[in-house]
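Because discrete structure vocabularies remain unfamiliar, it helps to consider an illustrative case, giving the amino acid sequence and backbone structure tokens:
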Amino acid sequence: MTKYRMGGVAAAALAAWTLAAGAQAAGPKAEVMHWWTSSSESAAVRKFADAYRAAGGVWVDTAIAGADQAKAVAINRIVGGNPPTAAQFNTTKQFSDLIDQGSLNNVDDVAVRDKWDQLLPGPMLDVIKVKGHYYALPVNIHMSTWIWYSKAAFKKAGINKEPATPDELFAALDKLKAAGLIGLAHGGQAWQENILFQAMLANVGGKELYLQVLRDRNPKALNSEAFKQVLVAFKRLQSYVDAGSPNRNWNDATAMLISGKAGVQIMGDWAKGEFSAARQSAGKDFGCIAGLGPQVPYLIQGDAFVFPKTANADAVKAQKLLATTLLAPAAQLEFSKLKGSLPVRSDIDVSTMDACAQAGMAAMKDKARQVGMIEVYITPDQNGALQDVLTAFWNTRMPVEKAQKSIAAALLQD
């Protein structure tokens, strides 16, 4: 074979042709903006990126630490005319304004083809489907009010049976306290107190009251004796936390269960990542309770991607490929195993997932238990006003009657 050195011009021409050919051969390019920056979250989102690349796409990862910051950047770029291909939001009312302003593309053809109405939970469809159009892709299910407990702490306190009712939960907390342990591992932050409130509303109040208070914002329900008892139960939880609770991070509270210093934590299923990192196993080292009774509502929340408005054909193609690949069964399963969430599809076999995920999916099978979490039903402003009251009630001697009236005022505001 004759060897020769290519001239500079010819080499440059070949390089340019190679780049052009590669770009032409590459599939739809998607800039995906999200806030999954922790080690477990980064590992999880890589599963989505791998699935997109396997489908022929080019995934451009734009990770921004902090959900509020990421959403703010996404909105600024959308308004400024330089949107990403897809942006992460929670599956709540967070992106309602973008829909109202006509700032999002829909993915109706993908949703109809892939039968989203049959596969996705009703509370999520109620958020993403507006006036018959599908404006977001839910990718997982989180439940924020799981009750976690340390098997070692329960054993030390002589608790032989997993609590199955609110009364049994409080009885277990009393035993933990009597044994010199911290009953409730809690981080004294407003959003964490909001979780405790939702847990008591769901478990003590039940589904009907939960929906009357949050979805319907029914004045009669808000001022009822039943709702007052929910608030009494919420405040009672404070008697089981330790002095170090204020401003504690949620994961530091989980560490208290891992070490056996505390018995119970009420937190979302993302807490599983902390147990896993400590090499603790569900059913062996810790327990998980989705609800204190078989009829307790399963409060659905999760993450979704919206598709900013664009007329660019390649960008639209990328949005539709994302909507297809991120909802594929294999991608759903592998992502959720690392994220700690449940797959959003109802037809996925979760037998290879941990015991808590399997318990969650079993609860999800009962559609009567499927209820949206708090932000599915109320606006960010209403939630902020509610959170202010809850934190004040938690941290002061505010009478329960005043808290009840203040919550009613917060939720009945426009």
Notes: DSSP finds 20 helices and 13 strands in the chain.
